[in-house]
Amino acid sequence: MAKLAILVVLALLAASSSAWELNLRMPNTARAMEAAAERLEAAPLIHALRPLLGSAGQLGQRAGVPCDSWRLAVEAYNKRDWKTVPANCEGYVGHYMLGGHYRRDSRVVVDEAIAYAEGLKLAGNGKEVWVFDIDETSLSNLPYYATHGFGTKPYNATSFNEYVLEGSAPALPETRRLFWKLVSLGIKPVLLTGRTEDQRAITTTNLGRQGYSGWEKLLLKPLGLKATAIAYKSGERQKLVDAGYVIVGNIGDQWSDILGAPEGARTFKLPDPLYYIG
Question: Which of 17, 33, 76, 98 could serve as a FRET partner for 105 with CA atoms 20 to 30 Å apart?
Answer without folding.
Answer: 33
